[in-house]
Input
Amino acid sequence: MPESLLNSPPHPSPTPSRPLLGVTVLVVEDSRFACEALRLLCLRSGARVRRADCLKSARRHLRVYRPSVIIVDLGLPDGSGLDLIRELVGATPRVPVILGTSGDRFAEHAALDAGADGYLPKPIESLAIFQEAILSRMPADRRPATLSLPTDELIRPDPIAYQDDMAHAADVLSDMADAKALDYVAQFIGGVARSAADEPLARAAEDLADARRNGRPVAFFAAQVAGLVQTRLNDRRVV
Output
């Protein structure tokens, strides 16, 4: 499947060691840390990678390019990734492989119900799981004749990307009176923290999200998250 809606050269054939050679993956993800993990997984697999950090950017990209694979985070700053998945499923021509991803352990059913071909729970760090999720859903002529899947190779993103996410979260948390922003930042921080195995921050984000869902006062939980985020900004050894 060509990368661009314009003329493009034939894609190279995949090999056992680079099974995604010739594949272009569009990653729709607002977290720099999660996106860096996916970038490393793509490069290790031979795939080209493009990034969109919101729905608007993804739709602008798709007006020009048609990727082979699209991985959509379900919680984005300008809306739900589920809406984009539904659009992609109904589009002609259809992107061959559409995968949802989230740090929310209850999100898989929502992604599949929206029409996604599969789901990648965060953290996304296993090369074997990543490659299998894509290859098992690719047309037969786009798969290598033989495959040497790694057994337990894990990808570790640069900790600087985590710091970038913390800076973004701190900026959003500067307006704690904005209920919509609190919902977004609770989801965002929860996913990033789980990807980085930062359990204290993940629990604090879940407490904030739970308070929002149940209509409880959120000032304490928002302040707790903000304090942890600031601590991580001040300590570059956190990841």
